[in-house]
Amino acid sequence: MAITHSNQLVWFRRNLRVANNPALEAAADSQHAKPLGVFCYDQQYTGTWLGMPRCAPLRAKFLWESVQDLQQQLQQMGGELIVQAEEPETLLPKLCQELNITHVHTQRLFAHEEVAAAERVLQALNAIGVTFVQHECYTLLAEAEVYERHTSPLGSFSKFRRKVAPDTQAITLRLNPLSVSQTSAVAQENAVARENAEPQENGVWHQLLAHQKQTPRTRENTAAENIIENAVAQENGARHHSLKQSPIAINADTDSRSVLPFKGGETAGQRRLQDYAASAVGHYKETRNGLIGADYSSKLSPWLNLGCISPAQVLQAVREYEAEHGANASTEWLIVELLWRDFFQFLAAEHGADLFQGSAKALGKVPENTDNDPTFLAWCAGETSNEFVNANMRELAKTGFMSNRGRQNVASALIHDMGIDWRWGALWFEANLLDYDPASNYGNWQYIGGLAANPRGGSWFNLKKQAQMYDTEGAYQKLWQAQY
Question: Fewest CB within a 10 Å sphere: which of 36, 39, 41, 152?
């Protein structure tokens, strides 16, 4: 398929949408050339850390659906999305040279690995004379605005909110964010080694995710998963290939008890935003600690964290509800949740590699290999002595989702009651959560463990009391008692 494109290329990261996407807007030229984008399945998806894969089938399925939705939307615009399982610092320079690209536009992200990846791309593109431009669109507030008002290190969310957004009604829509052209250099000595060793066949991964119906990894089906669609785009004789199937296993079925039939992509994300903002947002604060049902909370985080929808679009939807029904504590609190999300992004930028390091208090044990730790395995499988923890862990493994209340409780249990290294729990969340992003995930785990931004020195929850408060009749625990 021949594509007449400009000399601008979009590297899509966690901005998998066409609306309110400044990188895509910047890449368009006056001749309305067809948009050309690239998405890389790099090591943050295909790799492992601490011997465990980083992306489980349910999360991989949601990601693939999101990438495919973006590809379809770009094709409807006459453009194309090239999807490859390759590191961006290798693929992007190659495409730029083949297609005479002069500018690569992308999204600014904040966690250590993401900053390091952007730095590697910057160096590779600079070496061949290509301009690299990063655009802010992942947070609600602009970075310059935040650091102008909050000049000291981020010690607590309450202080952050008082300084940067004391009045949520004063937050204005940022639908055309400013861009930054380069990242700060990443110090090599701060790099975090995320080993790429293959997980053991009889290890935690294979034991605990058998329900997701993974087929044996033979040479034949591995090849089938990597079928390439030839000539997705063709320009000046150069042929560009796009993956036809996910490079990560996605043959997983979501349990029928899931709070929502989650489907990845901008199309589904916009539908969920419209549905929730039409009415349920008006009671968010009263119901946000719920455990069963679609509308006790917004459930927008899976689409937000892949950028299928933007925080500015969520704010706009809330403002539209307020214009018709009036502002209330619930509409304000949903915006506060967006600020919590911002807080962890800027905290990640501040902490760098330390986001993945540190011990929570004086742990009783820090296993070198989770396969040999029955306590951790029981936690992952939802087979502990506490049924409230079990229900939440089973919901996560079978649906890719867990409520905010549940996340706090199971993290507290692993860290403070079981004495397990918090990073094992954070990695299990990384692999399984549909709404995973490194800043929010690892930042929240550090918060519970008392390693970062928690003035109380950690958060320990009384599991019995929590179950009595939030699952008074035991309906949630009963719902997830069965392992089917």
Answer: 152
Q: Is the pLDDT of residue 370 over 80?
A: no
Whole-prediction pTM: 0.89
Q: Find how far residue 187's CA is from the centre of its chain.
A: 24
Long-range CB contact pairs, 333-340, < 8 A, 24+: 333/284, 333/285, 333/288, 334/281, 334/284, 334/298, 335/140, 335/168, 335/171, 336/161, 336/168, 337/298, 338/140, 338/311, 338/314, 339/140, 339/141, 339/157, 339/160, 339/161, 339/164, 339/165, 339/168, 340/157
Q: What's the CA gap between 324 and 158, in Å, rounded? A: 30
Q: What is the mean pLDDT of residues 181-192?
A: 38
Q: Token digits for 277? A: 């903002």
Mean pLDDT of 55-81: 96
| Structural domains of the chain ordered from first start | 1-138 (3.40.50.620), 266-351 (1.25.40.80), 357-479 (1.10.579.10)
Predicted confidence band at 232 (pLDDT cuts at 50, 70, 90)? very low
> Cβ distance 154 to 347 under 8 Å?
yes
State the Cα–Cα distance between residues 161 and 368, nearest whole angstrom: 38
The C-alpha torsion from 384 through 385 and 389 to 395, rounded to 10°, is 50
Closest CA to 462 of 417, 403, 421, 422: 417
Q: Say how many C-beta atoms besides its own lie within 10 A of residue 234's C-beta.
A: 14
> CB neighbours of 123 closer than 8 A, spacing ≥ 6?
89
Range among 166-175, 197-206, 230-239, 434-443 with highest mean pLDDT value: 434-443
